[in-house]
Design goal:
Order of helices and strands: HEEEEEEEEEEEEEEEEEEEEEEE
Structural class: mainly beta
Strand content: 35-45%
Low-confidence stretches: 1-23, 264-281
Mean pLDDT: 81
Shape: globular
Amino acid sequence: MKLKLQFIITAVIVLAIYIPVAHGQANLTFSGGSGAPLSTTLTHSITYTITNFNCVSKQGFIPVFTFDEAGNPVPSGSTVTGTIGYSIDGEASHSILSTESGFVSGDITLNDLSLIGNTDYTIPSINSKVVLFAGTVTTNNNIAAAPPADSSYDTFIANLEGVRCSTNGIVVTTAATVSVSGRIVTAQGRGIKNITITMTDSHGNTRTARSTSFGYYRFDDVRAGETYIFTAQGKRFSFERNPLVHSIMEDTNNINFVADEQTVFGESGGFKVSRRENCIL
């Protein structure tokens, strides 16, 4: 009986550590403004459920992530750069392109603050899940108004006409960690060793790994629910897509880099590569 009770207590402790905790408001913090660019930070990822198929237009799906009564400091169409991204039904992450407030239409009111996504030809359906990933975006122009107050806000997705598309977002926080791995290869698929891969989180923290003789690399204990930038660097190689941006929600093993066709002539791992053909000589 004592052993059984001890097992139950241990199980409860494990569940308390690893089960995500959900609540209904998004936490936003702000800096800048008052004549400088405005930075908006989303501290935790948010999950929305699509409830209105009429939000999809012929141009695709352009989500307007709306934060209720978050403030009215941003002129329409203020473009942004940064690390907040979103994904539809677990597909590739997309960027936030702009932010605005003061737009009044449909379910969006004067003091709502919106983050506007890219045109997405991944068409969601009823009950599709859209995840807005934690990170920071900063306007590319100066904002005259003072920043809004740091606080928690109800949030939903609308379309460009202000029509509500989703349930209120659910914020999920978790202490779970996952592993992230991939491979560095030539255009012909041969592994490249001694390439340094840097992983940067939304707060600017970095970790590095080095590829093995077969081109593999791995990061363990990566915090789930965040967006990371992966960069590959080697003395004799450049890469077709570099850096890569991925939102990590679970164990991931396919963040791969392929050397491009203009790799500088040299030797790596006991073989040579040609500038023109990037092939083994």
